[in-house]
Design brief:
mainly alpha, 9% strand, globular
């Protein structure tokens, strides 16, 4: 059975991050990642919504897909996950081996995920730069 779309699909389609529950699928619009765990999808969705809120405030944007540049969404997702990994696992890598592990640590350590010090990961979002394409 194909699960619902992963909120962090962009990070996995880029082959930079991975998740034990993410499965590459083809939908009408093209490649996508389907989550194979309802529990973890709910945790990831809650986390993504919080990252989005913090990130949009940090970049001074409202939540409007027609106004927010794609690069800001990339910084929020990639930089946000890297920041969570840095704070929760004391790891300063440029990729996340398993998104689920990071998200699960967040939820295990912070029963109310709002209690996590998100301001500490804003620099990770603002400083994230995707790798340059080769010509």
């Amino acid at each position: 059975m194909i699960g619902d779309a992963c909120v962090f699909a962009l990070t996995q389609i880029a082959n930079e991050f991975s998740c034990q529950y993410g499965e590459l699928v083809t939908r009408r619009a093209g490649a996508d990642i389907a989550c194979q765990s309802e529990k973890h999808q709910q945790q990831c969705t809650c986390t993504y919504e919080r990252l989005k809120q913090i990130g949009l405030d940090a970049f001074d944007y409202e939540d409007d897909l027609t106004q927010v540049p794609h690069g800001v969404w990339v910084k929020i997702q990639f930089g946000g996950l890297l920041g969570l990994q840095r704070v929760l696992q004391d790891k300063s890598d440029n990729k996340v081996e398993d998104i689920t592990t990071v998200i699960q640590m967040l939820h295990d350590q912070h029963n109310q995920i709002e209690s996590f010090p998100y301001k500490n990961i804003v620099p990770d979002m603002q400083g994230y730069s995707s790798r340059k394409r080769r010509k």
